[in-house]
Each structure stands twice: as structure tokens, then as C-alpha cells.
Design brief:
mainly alpha, Arc Repressor Mutant, subunit A, 2 strands, GntR family transcriptional regulator, DNA binding, transcription, WH_DNA-bd_sf
Length: 127
């Protein structure tokens, strides 16, 4: 279910978060579906339960999941309407990354090509 790269510079909890977000966004995990318990997932992935707990806590903070004490964590219903606050934050992050990319020698055409490839790949994965 999850593929974690222990050699990656990306923290394990962040890898787990990204994979769970992807599964939620692509409807692999349905709204109100129960997620594996922290203990079970930690045993399955052979990682520290605190790592799982941190990922779940961050996902809850971001609105992707919710927790019912004594019952577990569940997938939040995704609101398909634009989240203006989150979109503005992402736009700011992307603008900063574009400035860095251009400063380091990247070209505008490379950015355009990358955006086209990324959107085509995303559309292909949805089909």
C-alpha cells in the first residue's frame, strides 16, 4: 500500500502524508473510510508509531482526515470548491520556487514544458 524510501532526504512522515493525500485526492480512499490504526500501520511498515502519529496529525491539521477518539482516523469528505486560502498559499510557494528556478539558470520555456508534461501526466493517471 505504501512505498517509503528510507534513503530519501524527505522525512518518512512527509512521504506517508503525500501518499495518503494522493490516495484521498484520487478517490482510492473514500470519504469517511477508516485509516489503518497507528499501531497496525507502524507494524506493517516497521517504523516508529510516533512517525505515523505525526503524519496523521498533520493530515488532520490540513483537513484531509479527522479523528474520533476511541474509534480511529477517517478520510474527510473533500470539498471540491476552491479553498482560496490554501490556493493563495500554494501560489505564493510556487512563485517563490519559480524565482529560484530562474535565478539558478532555468528558462521560462523549461517551466512551460514542465507544466504541460505535468498536467498531461496527471490527466493520464486519472483515466
Amino acid at each position: 500500500m505504501f512505498k517509503l524510501d528510507t534513503r530519501s532526504r524527505v522525512a518518512i512522515y512527509e512521504q506517508l502524508m503525500e501518499q495518503l493525500k494522493t490516495m484521498i485526492i484520487r478517490d482510492v480512499l473514500q470519504k469517511d473510510e477508516k485509516l489503518p490504526s497507528v499501531r497496525n500501520l507502524a507494524q506493517e511498515l516497521t517504523i516508529n508509531p510516533n512517525t505515523i502519529q505525526k503524519a496523521y496529525r498533520e493530515l488532520e491539521h490540513e483537513g484531509f482526515i479527522y479523528t474520533i477518539p476511541g474509534k480511529g482516523s477517517f478520510v474527510s469528505p473533500l470539498d471540491k470548491s476552491p479553498n482560496k486560502k490554501k490556493l493563495a498559499s500554494l501560489k505564493q510557494d510556487i512563485e517563490q520556487r519559480i524565482k529560484e528556478f530562474l535565478f539558478l539558470g532555468g528558462t521560462k520555456q523549461e517551466l512551460i514544458d514542465w507544466l504541460i508534461q505535468g498536467s498531461e501526466r496527471e490527466e493520464g493517471e486519472r483515466e
